[in-house]
Specification:
single chain, about 325 residues, alpha/beta, Rossmann fold, 2 domains, five-stranded parallel β-sheet, 12 helices, globular
């Protein structure tokens, strides 16, 4: 039986991973993985981690010294892992490259619809017996220009949903599938043109050195006055301080975020009884035209099931000396 230390685990992680844990001995920890907490993985053969765990070189060396042979990411992103160090140390790293992409795509639309039609504000008004409609005016999605930046599986599904609303969709992706674009009447364009022409811009990119702060002050200035920005990709795709300045100037109509540049230690935690020390996040939360959810786009029964099954199967294969599932090893 393969012994696995599961870091940064919440109740839903424990529930879904336990359902798929046949042949595995899972030890769940609330703590995030780091060089400081690596010692918790003693007597284990593998570690399971999430998006805000830090598997840098120092951490990986500490894990290797404790006999860890595998890191299993229960997410698609892997920018928090030093892959070069892992290869040097002989540690196998896997991820879950695709898990119910519909979950993230649908959450993108849920954020936009709630922000646009002021559902979150209307809900609280009605709860207080305030039935006024003043300040709740939205706009029709039908006929609007939507720009999708990043057309992997999630980006493509998001584009298709927008087409279902009757939107005109353009896309920027160096590796755009031309056949798919033609079939769904999605127009390929440059990033510059997309930002200038779109009423709604939606980000669906991985975080790489090239995409870090892709949406900076210059990019925000290119966006149309009164346009809306949505990010369900990675927080560091947007330069937060530049975004705040754009909001303060009134340039953007609205912003919907499921991810945030410095979400570690904040997102996934209950801080309701504490002072929020992140000044930028505190400022964003003051804008009436900003809607933020705490990295929950993936949180559906289907996605959690797929994540657990893929992660546990790879861990079982490690214990048997077999190769990970195709397409999951980094």
């Amino acid at each position: 039986m393969t012994a696995v230390a599961v870091f940064d685990s919440k109740s839903y992680d424990r529930d879904y991973l336990s359902r798929s844990a046949e042949g595995l001995d899972l030890s769940f920890f609330n703590e995030r993985l780091s060089a400081r907490t690596a010692s918790l993985a003693r007597d284990c053969e593998a570690v399971c981690l999430f998006v805000n765990d830090i598997a840098d070189r120092e951490c990986l060396v500490a894990l290797k010294e404790r006999g860890i042979a595998m890191l299993a990411l229960r997410c698609a992103g892997f920018n928090n892992v030093d892959l070069e160090a892992a290869r040097e140390l002989g540690i196998t790293v896997t991820r879950v490259p695709a898990y119910s992409p519909h979950a993230v795509a649908e959450h993108t639309l849920a954020l936009l619809l709630s922000l646009n039609r002021q559902i979150h504000r209307a809900y609280h008004r009605v709860r207080d017996h305030n039935f006024s409609l003043a300040g709740l005016v939205g706009f029709d999605l039908y006929g609007k220009n939507v720009g999708i930046i990043g057309c992997g599986t999630i980006g493509r599904i998001t584009a298709e949903i927008f087409r279902g609303f009757g939107c005109k969709v353009s896309a920027y992706d160096p590796h755009l599938d031309d056949d798919w674009a033609a079939a769904h009447e999605v127009r390929a364009t440059s990033l510059h043109e997309l930002l200038e022409s779109s009423d709604i811009v939606s980000l669906h990119l991985p975080l790489t050195p090239d995409t870090h702060h892709l949406i900076d002050a210059e990019a925000l200035a290119l966006m149309k006055d009164g346009s809306t920005l949505i990010n369900t990709g990675r927080g560091k795709l947007i330069e937060t301080k530049a975004l705040i300045q754009s909001l303060k100037s009134g340039h953007l109509r609205g912003v919907a975020l499921d991810v945030y540049e410095e979400e570690e230690g904040v997102f996934f935690e209950d801080l309701s009884g504490e002072i929020l020390h992140d000044d930028d996040l505190s400022r964003l939360l003051t804008f009436p035209n900003v809607l933020i959810t705490s990295h929950q786009a993936f949180l559906t029964e289907e996605a959690l099931t797929e994540i657990a099954q893929t992660t546990c199967e790879n861990l079982r294969r490690l214990g048997k000396g077999e190769s990970p599932l195709e397409g999951t090893q980094l």
